[in-house]
Design brief:
alpha/beta; Rossmann fold; 9-stranded mixed β-sheet; about 25% helix; disordered N terminus; binds S-adenosylmethionine
Length: about 230
């Protein structure tokens, strides 16, 4: 069992959206597992399938880890992997720490650079169910490319926008004060169309069904991090 010692350092100054996300998920932390079950969230099942085809990572960074729900999925497939988690919600950070599955869990706003994570410090990065909260996912992906070792992988989801069926897949949606940003398939592919990325899979799925009955479409992505520096802005 890894050392579940808390990393108590917080990043000062989360973005306004980051603060709104933190408030939303702080309020949901106690019933999060039930919310996920009721919404038939696709993330854990999709992750389990993808992990079957990946080489064992020594270090896994779980972005937007919430209460550590994906930790058991990673552990089942790769028992020796060292897991680190990141979330902006303090309640979720505490819950992920309490799971005992993560070596460290830090409170951090993904709208900010991952400057406390070293270059080449992970073989696998997960960004499931969290990128729709960012207006600029490209900035985070540059950071992910820096943190990943060459040969490493990113498994991620994006909320989908379908320009020809905007009623089913709008450009943005809201939960309370939190905005969810959706991208077209071409926009997602464009994030990975140049080195150091190689797009290995891009699949359209129903990500989850919200309490109001909205079947939220997702793009599920596997991307390989090739050699070379992260691409410039
Ligand atoms: C829907 S949950 C997904 C949890 C987990 N990744 C999964 O797939 O089951 C989204 C999580 O992302 C976190 N999150 C959203 N925006 C974030 C941000 N800007 N910085 C850090 N965490 C964020 C939320 O606090 C929440 O815990």
């Amino acid at each position: 069992m890894p050392d579940a010692r808390a990393d108590v350092a917080d990043v000062a100054g989360a973005s306004a959206q980051g603060e709104a996300v933190a408030a939303l998920y702080d309020g949901m932390a106690a019933r999060y597992d039930e919310v996920v079950r009721a919404g038939r969230y696709v993330g854990p099942g999709w992750l389990a399938l993808r992990l079957r085809r990946l080489p064992p990572p020594a270090r896994v960074l779980d972005l937007g880890c919430a209460n550590g729900r994906l930790g058991p999925v990673v552990r089942r497939r790769f028992p020796a992997a060292r897991l680190s988690g990141v979330d902006v919600s303090s309640a979720m950070v505490e819950a992920a720490r309490a799971s005992g599955l993560y070596e460290s869990v830090r409170r951090h706003d993904l709208a900010r650079p991952l400057d406390r994570w070293d270059t080449g410090s992970a073989e696998l990065v997960l960004a499931l169910g969290c990128l729709e909260f960012l207006a600029e996912p490209a900035a985070l992906l540059r950071e992910v490319a820096r943190v990943l070792v060459p040969g490493g992988h990113l498994l991620a989801s994006f909320q989908a926008h379908w320009p020809d069926r905007p009623a089913l897949a709008p450009r943005s949606t809201r939960s309370a004060d939190v905005r969810h940003h959706a991208l077209t398939e071409d926009e997602v592919a464009g994030l990975f169309d140049a080195p150091p990325w190689r797009l290995e899979a891009l699949e359209g799925v129903t990500g989850y069904v919200s309490a109001t009955g909205f079947a939220c479409p997702y793009w599920m992505v596997q991307a390989g991090r090739q050699g070379g520096p992260p691409r410039a802005e």
